[in-house]
Amino acid sequence: INNGFSGVNNVNLIFPMERPVFLREVNNNMYTVSAYFWSKIFSELPMSLLMPTLQGVVVYFALGLNMNEWYKFPIFLSSSILCYNAFTGFGYILGTSISNKQVSVILTPVLIVPTMLFAGFFVNQENIPKFLLPLRELAVFKYSFQAYMINEFTDQQLDCMTDPNPIMSCDPLGDFNSPQSL
């Protein structure tokens, strides 16, 4: 979620400020829209790689995520970079379609937070009504969340998974000894 909002907010407010200059220069045939777009993408490429990488390094090791295989961390970083850049694209869409900065700041969470419902955070994917399925397929959070979960829990063996007792259920937090209980 933090990756997504960081990506949107880093570019969302830039284009409304540059809009008058951009329109004047494009109308005077100083450059094309595609030249502006590609120069914007390439000039922001180092930060769009650096920001999610720094955040991913801190988060991965601070949370103690899966280190059983060497490829888990690079996949996590790749997923973080793709998530960040997908939301950066969403920020470009918002920035170009909404010319007022204040309206853009207000509408950003209003448009992004509902997509979290389709990601699987709060609602099971099978419980989403059929008429909302196209929105579920467009939600970037869904793909990021699934990539993180598959990367973290594939080949992960919890002690309760190997218990011969069929009544035993996996409750990873049930055996957690918090500092308050010690």
Can you give a write-up of this model?
With 182 residues, this protein is an all-alpha fold. The protein contains seven helices and no strands. The C terminus is likely disordered. 65% of the residues lie in helices and 0% in strands.
Q: Counting H and I runs of at least 4 residues, what is the number of helices?
A: 7
Low-confidence stretches: 175-182
β-strand percent reads: under 5%
Distance between the termini: 33 Å
| Strand/helix succession | HHHHHHH
The average pLDDT is 84
Number of strands: 0
Helix content, binned percent:
55-70%
Structural class based on helices, strands and sheet pairing: mainly alpha
Largest sheet report: none
| Multimeric status of the protein | single chain
A few lines on this structure:
The protein has helices at 2-12, 14-27, 33-63, 72-97, 101-117, 133-138, 140-153.
Notable features of this structure?
single chain, 182 residues, mainly alpha, 65% helix, elongated, disordered C terminus
Question: Which helices and strands appear, and what pairs or packs with what?
Answer:
Blueprint: H1 2-12, H2 14-27, H3 33-63, H4 72-97, H5 101-117, H6 133-138, H7 140-153
Helix pairs in contact: 1-4, 1-5, 3-4, 4-7
